[in-house]
Amino acid sequence: MAYPKGEKLSSDSITEITKLIQYRDINGQNRLFGGRLMEWIDEAAGVAAMRHCGGDAVTLMVDSLKFKHGAFINDIVVLIAKVTYVGRTSMEVRVDTYVEEKATGLRRAINHAYLTCVHVDDKGRPKPIEFGLKPVGITEQAEWEGAQKRIAIRKQRNAEGY
Ligand SMILES: CC(C)(COP(=O)(O)OP(=O)(O)OC[C@H]1O[C@@H](n2cnc3c(N)ncnc32)[C@H](O)[C@@H]1OP(=O)(O)O)[C@@H](O)C(=O)NCCC(=O)NCCS
């Protein structure tokens, strides 16, 4: 679908990636290697950001990356990414990661992360995003308002050298 300039919905950027944990993904404790999960999170966020801005995007930063539970060999891992806030050139993307129970299909949250991605031109310079984001419903509105607080915290931390 070709979008007119204007607004997109958070649902337009939704990106779901499903992985089966294999030997190449685990550490010495048969546990999903954190670096591998970070790679998948970055990939999911990048695709969601590109879907929103309609071009290239790079990852500027990752925050709130908390491993709440482990995942193990032969587990099904599902990552769901969506854009939660859009600035002039940057986007905030939330990525939720779950382990999907094979017997029931129930998904247990193991991680959530917020990433800041920047729309870039063909020289890698920040480029204005042509599409705003229209939050729909209470949850998306809360994400939007939360993003403004998170951006202020990120800028504060940056100013303090973290
Ligand atoms: C991302 C990159 C292009 C940004 O370039 P830059 O000159 O620092 O860009 P700007 O200062 O104009 O900031 C760009 C956006 O990021 C935001 N930003 C920058 N620093 C920020 C911080 N500490 N916290 C929150 N937002 C920040 C700015 O507010 C701006 O967003 P806005 O236009 O929506 O307000 C550049 O830093 C880069 O190329 N980084 C490497 C990216 C990369 O290789 N990633 C890994 C592979 S994808």
Describe the structure.
With 162 residues, this protein is an alpha+beta fold. It has a single domain (7-159), classed as Thiol Ester Dehydrase, Chain A (Roll). 27% of the residues lie in helices and 38% in strands. The chain has two helices and seven strands, in the order ββαβββββα. It has helices spanning 34-53, 137-159, and strands at 6-9, 15-20, 56-67, 76-86, 90-100, 107-120, 131-134. The chain has a five-stranded antiparallel β-sheet with strand order 2-4-5-6-3. Strands 1-7 form a two-stranded parallel ribbon. The radius of gyration is 17 Å and the shape is globular. The relative contact order is 0.21. The model has no long low-confidence stretch (mean pLDDT 94). It binds coenzyme A (COA). Coenzyme A (COA) binds next to β3, β6 and α2.
Inertia-based shape: globular
Kindly report the spatial arrangement of strands forming the biggest sheet. Answer: 2-4-5-6-3
Secondary-structure element order, N to C: EEHEEEEEH
What's the structural domain tally? 1
The residue ranges in which pLDDT falls below 50 over 5 or more consecutive positions are: none
Oligomer state equals single chain
Pfam families: 4HBT (PF03061)
GO molecular function: long-chain fatty acyl-CoA hydrolase activity
Protein name: Thioesterase family protein
Organism: Ruminococcus albus 8
Kindly list the characteristics that best describe this protein.
single chain; 162 residues; alpha+beta; Thiol Ester Dehydrase, Chain A; five-stranded antiparallel sheet; two-stranded parallel ribbon; 7 strands; 27% helix; 38% strand; globular; binds coenzyme A
